[in-house]
Amino acid sequence: MAKPITQDEINRAAQLLRAGRLVAFPTETVYGLGANALDPDAVARIYAVKGRPPTSPLIVHVASAEMAKALVSAWPQAADLLTKRFWPGPLTLVLGKRPAIPDIVTAGLTTVGLRMPAHPVALALIRAAGVPLAAPSANRFTELSPTAADHVRRSLGDDVDLILDGGPCQVGIESTVVSVAGPQPVLFRPGGISRAELEALIGPVASAREVSEPEASGQDGPEVLGQEDPSGAPPSPGMHPRHYSPRTTLFLISDGNLPEQGKGVYLQQTRPASRKDIAIIQMPSDAAAYASQLYDRLHQADAANADWIAVDQPPATAEWEAVMDRLRRAATN
Ligand code: TXA
Ligand code: MG
Question: What is the pTM of this model?
Answer without folding.
Answer: 0.91
